[in-house]
Design a protein that fits this description.
The complex is a heterodimer.
Chain A lengths: L1 E5 L2 E8 L2 E5 L11 E6 L3 H13 L2 E6 L2 H11 L3 E5 L1 E2 L2 E2 H10 L6 E5 L6 H8 L3 E4 L4 H12 L9 E4 L2 E4 L4 E4 L2 E3 L3 H12 L5 E2 H7 L11 H13 L8 E4 L3 E4 L4
Parallel strand pairs in A: 4-5, 4-6, 6-9, 9-10
Antiparallel strand pairs in A: 1-2, 2-3, 7-8, 11-12, 12-13, 13-14, 15-17, 16-17
Helix pairs in contact in A: 2-3
Chain B lengths: L2 H6 L1 H49 L2 H13 L6 E6 L5 E4 L15 E9 L2 E13 L5 E6 L3 H50 L15 H51 L3 H33 L7 E4 H18 L3 E5 L5 E4 L1 H18 L5 E8 L3 E8 L31 H12 L2 E6 L3 E8 L7
Parallel strand pairs in B: 7-9
Antiparallel strand pairs in B: 1-2, 1-5, 3-4, 4-5, 6-8, 9-10, 10-12, 11-12
Classes of the chains: A alpha/beta, B alpha+beta.
Chain lengths: ~260, ~450
């Protein structure tokens, strides 16, 4: 469990099973079910740190140090998610993913790599709903992406998104908070839509840039913060309990007021 | 060079192959001549004996024997065979004991075996013969041994020996000479190359006077070496830059951690130190990532990921992205986009390039300034122009800003990695677009999209 402070509030941030739970009171959230993660990483030190960190966050982690071992374990323990290093001794991690997909195993995969992501195979991976993270990465980024992969938004025919008092009409392209109509620019609408589909989930700047702005790179300027600032200004007017939370050094969370 | 090495040298091998091929050709040619001539001689001789048979057969009985004797007496080479036999096969006259067993008496020329009586004893030879039963029942046989064929074979063999063997030797000698010469030059080149491989990059291959392919090749390799030498010096320079730019944040991180370790008294104090160190490390990691990305773009092939990119839509997207930031800084961001072309390119990279230019423009323009995104038609190209009212880039800095890590001294305090414009230049180069920096009120940067790269709609 991780703690962070924001405007005097203490947030407890824990990952349990397939659910990320953020609570502002002192109660420790109940662990719902253990999520199994298979980590295929040949560098023992990196693996050790990652196993420790993910275990601490409530995941059940299995480690494989080579591609062959990883492939065996993937078939045997049937993990809920796999984290695969791309450069394994004598093997490209993507080959493992392709082998599993060939066997109709659809476990979500997060590829870690020291290589950039201009590769066509990586593009294919992302199209398939999996993710790719360039080494080195912040742990919070890794965890946020694990969450995103585990909680893929359910494809619904729902045309109305609701989080607490917040409503988004995907047909009329209108937004309202309670009785109040919110005027949004097209990009702000898309940002809010993305956040509402993933409420209670930590969204990092890189994730937002990739998914909302379709950016494959991170510019120097704090683009996301400026845009998020504007959206927050419109969603959380003075007097309302805040719904968009800035998690320092990590990203943003949309959450219904308690 | 020892003999085995010499024999296996490619020049010598080629010469040997040529010699063998030549010999085969000559053999076939001579064989053909022999065969044709032999046929001709046999045909002519066949004609003669058929005529003789007719003549003798037509003579009255009593003159036949004289004619036969005359024929045999004139045969100095012992190649004529004549026999006149009774119907039961017993000999009347001539130098044959009996009619050849396989000879059909139908007045056609055939090849048969006969026994020839020589002083050394009887010998079996193959001759051309013709036979006929005469009206009075007697059998007349005339044969001829075509010994010219043997003489012909001898002539041909002699000609072969006289012509082919010297030609073969000449081929081999020439091959040896050529391979020796090539070997001598190559060993000279090898020596230099070994020195170059060992590190003396200033060495060059020997260049002879003249314009043979060898000299041309050496010249080409030398100019390649010039290029490599220049590049290596450039890389060494870039390496120093990288080391400097990576070290600066790492030094800060190290200092913060060392001081924090010794001085921090409380957990929050230690945390703030660690946060500082992480921020510094993130900066050096960002530099490493940006460098990798540059290398990635430089190495990527032109066509992968290329498609039609509508510039107008892309520019509006960049405008939407940066409008809030410009507004926060009190900068007017204006767009004047007309007839923006649809170009062939990688959308993500082009977006990155344009975003980088606008990012720079907004970053380096003071509060109250203006940034403008314009498209105009130029001479044979469409031009995207991004102007700002910042300090601009002075003439002597213009090529430098496109280099890695160059940051104008005036902006040392502005956050950034100093790789933005390099990236833009690399992307433009990959697409074959023109990138030019001018001075206007502030900085003016143009990307020229050649009309050929536009897709007409």
């Amino acid at each position: 469990m991780t703690e962070f402070r924001q405007n005097g509030d203490v947030f407890r941030y824990a990952t349990a099973g397939a659910h990320l739970i953020v609570s502002s009171d002192q109660t420790v959230p109940e662990i719902l079910q253990m999520t199994k993660i298979l980590l295929i990483e040949d560098d023992s030190e990196t693996a050790e740190e990652l196993v420790a960190e993910l275990t601490q966050r409530g995941f059940e982690v299995e480690h494989a140090a080579s591609g062959i071992e990883g492939l065996d374990k993937a078939r045997f323990i049937k993990p809920d998610l796999m984290i695969v290093d791309r450069m394994l001794p004598g093997m490209d991690g993507l080959t493992i993913v392709e082998a599993l997909r060939h066997d109709q195993i659809r476990t979500p995969v997060l590829i870690l790599s020291a290589l950039g992501a201009v590769d066509d195979r990586v593009r294919g991976l992302r199209m398939g709903g999996d993710d790719y993270l360039t080494k080195p990465f912040a742990i919070v980024e890794l965890v946020a992406r694990i969450e995103a992969l585990l909680r893929r938004p359910i494809e619904t025919r729902e045309t109305m998104l609701r989080v607490g008092p917040l409503e988004l009409d995907l047909i009329e392209r209108t937004a309202r908070r309670g009785e109040r109509e919110i005027e949004l620019l097209p990009r702000e609408f898309r940002l809010l839509e993305y956040m509402m589909q993933r409420n209670e989930q930590l969204l990092t700047r890189a994730m937002l840039l990739e998914e909302v702005w379709n950016y494959k790179f991170v510019p120097d300027t704090n683009l996301v913060d400026v845009h998020m600032g504007r959206l927050r200004h419109k969603v959380d007017t003075p007097g309302d309990p805040p719904m968009i939370h800035n998690v320092r050094g990590a990203g943003f969370i949309l959450r219904a007021p308690s | 060079m020892n003999l085995a090495e010499f024999a296996s040298s490619s020049t010598f091998r080629a010469a040997t192959v040529a010699a063998v091929a030549l010999s085969l050709f000559v053999l076939v040619l001579f064989g053909f001549i022999y065969w044709k001539t032999d046929r001709l001689l046999v045909t002519r001789s066949d004609h003669v004996i058929a005529l003789q048979l007719q003549t003798v057969a037509a003579l009255p009985n009593e003159r036949r024997l004289d004619a036969l004797h005359l024929q045999l007496s004139q045969d100095s080479r012992d190649v004529h065979f004549i026999g006149l036999f009774r119907a039961d096969g017993s000999r009347v006259a001539g130098n044959l004991e009996r009619p050849p067993a396989t000879l059909r008496l139908d007045a056609t020329v055939q090849t048969v075996e006969i026994i020839r009586q020589r002083p050394a004893g009887p010998e079996q030879i193959t001759v051309q013969a013709i036979g006929q039963q005469l009206p009075d029942g007697e059998i007349l046989v005339i044969g001829r041994y075509v010994d010219e064929a043997i003489q012909l074979l001898m002539v041909v063999s002699q000609a072969l020996a006289l012509g082919l063997i010297p030609a073969l030797l000449l081929c081999l000698a020439l091959g040896a000479l050529l391979s020796l010469r090539a070997e001598r030059r190559i060993s000279g080149v090898n020596e230099r190359i070994q020195r170059i491989v060992a590190g003396s990059l200033h060495e060059r291959l020997p260049v002879n006077r003249g314009r043979d392919p060898f000299t041309q090749l050496a010249g080409m390799v030398n100019s390649m070496l010039d290029e490599i030498e220049t590049l290596i010096h450039a890389i060494a320079g870039v390496g120093n830059d990288i080391a400097h730019d990576l070290r600066t944040p790492l030094t800060r991180a190290r200092l913060a951690l060392e001081r924090g370790r010794n001085n921090a008294r409380t957990l929050p104090e230690l945390r703030s130190v660690v946060d500082k160190a992480i921020a510094s490390m993130d900066q050096s990691l960002a530099i490493a990532a940006a460098l990798l990305r540059l290398a990635e773009i430089e190495n990527s092939r032109r066509s992968t990921g290329f498609g039609k990119v509508a510039l107008e839509e892309l520019l509006h997207e960049v405008r939407d992205l940066y409008a809030p930031i410009a507004e926060d800084k009190g900068i007017t961001l204006r767009t004047d986009i007309v007839h923006a072309p649809i170009v062939e390119g990688d959308r993500d990279l082009l977006m990155e390039a344009v975003a980088n230019l606008v990012d720079n423009a907004v970053k380096f323009t003071p509060r109250g300034g203006q940034v403008q995104i314009t498209t105009v038609s130029g001479d044979g190209e469409s031009i995207l122009r991004i102007t700002d009212t910042g300090a601009g880039i002075s003439e002597h800095e213009r090529s430098a800003v496109l280099r890695r890590f160059y940051r104008s001294d005036a902006f040392r305090k502005t956050p950034g990695l100093g790789l933005g414009l390099t990236l833009v230049a690399t992307i433009a180069k990959l697409h074959g677009f023109r990138l030019t920096i001018f001075s206007g009120e502030g900085c003016v940067i143009e990307i020229g999209f050649p009309d050929a790269s536009e897709i007409k709609v």
